């Protein structure tokens, strides 16, 4: 009879521990490699939005490693809590975020008016709640019995939502990290991105961007640099003057020398802000090696990503934003990123749904072709001693 090994200190059985220990060490090694690669990518280029996916991968690897370590130590109960606790908290968090976004949408609509932009939080909140509802319905259906067709359809509906939730988590985590990364110390140009005007005056949102840009301009001067400040923003259909002109007036009033100030007044999008600012600097014969872009906190990550796409050596910094406005504005930026990578997202969704459907089809085919095993009395007499041996082993 085999006696399971037991830890004398804790009293836990360690039967099968070597395999679990190997699994724990393997997971720890994978976690370390993933963490090193994530740091390397961020240091190499902080502007990659995919850096967030690497950070999520690190968190998942560490989570799995911790579960395996607890199992290897014989603490199965703690491992179960660690395995299912975060899942439960994640579901509760999704519900909380969904309800919070619905409430925030009401606040934004009351302050900013009803528009497609102010409805973004409500749409995302409803999508998150729908994802939780579908997941709960799938679990309930599995416990009650479910047809293969229904299972395929439910999971096919869950996959796109799960992919969006994963990307939103990654984008949010990296936006928090990105905001705390140092940079822009060696910039020769500061570009302030426009937003909107109140008549000929800057809105609080645009003023915060300008204040950050002016602060960074003065810091570069104090460090011995001779930078230029570019005020970038065209004239909207409902604006009296171009944003770049209003921003330049504000900069002059704050004491910025006119010979270090440039106005870019053609752009209507963030990409045009950056492209036209670079073209303006080139047309003025201004040589520069690195650009510092100042914008709002919710916009900094996507603005930095755009500079990378345009091939501009730049760092993006974000200015503080009103708390009530952050969720709606941040989600608009996230949606813009998802839309930009829509082809890749559609391909990933199609592959995942196809793999799930293929898996279900294979299981059904194997199940249909499998023949039931019928044991007669003679076979049972032969197997009986073996079964008893297994029970007493």
Structure description:
- It comes from Tsukamurella paurometabola (strain ATCC 8368 / DSM 20162 / CCUG 35730 / CIP 100753 / JCM 10117 / KCTC 9821 / NBRC 16120 / NCIMB 702349 / NCTC 13040) (Corynebacterium paurometabolum).
- Keywords: Membrane, Transmembrane, Transmembrane helix.
- This is DUF218 domain-containing protein.
- This protein has helices at residues 17-44, 51-72, 76-112, 120-144, 148-179, 204-222, 243-253, 270-283, 300-309, 326-340, 342-369, 377-392, and strands spanning 189-193, 197-198, 201-202, 228-232, 261-264, 291-296, 314-319.
- The longest helix has 37 residues, at 76-112.
- With 393 residues, it is α/β, with parallel strands linked by helices.
- The chain is built from twelve helices and seven strands.
- The chain has a five-stranded parallel beta sheet with strand order 5-4-1-6-7.
- The radius of gyration is 29 Å and the shape is elongated.
- α1 (17-44) packs antiparallel against α2, α2 crosses α5 (148-179) and α3 (76-112) runs antiparallel to α4.
- The protein folds into two domains: 17-180 and 345-364, no CATH class; 189-321, HUPs (Rossmann fold), CATH 3.40.50.620.
- β4 (228-232), α7 and β5 form a beta-alpha-beta unit.
- Helix content is 65%, strand content 8%.
Quickly describe the structure.
By secondary structure, the chain is of the alpha/beta class.
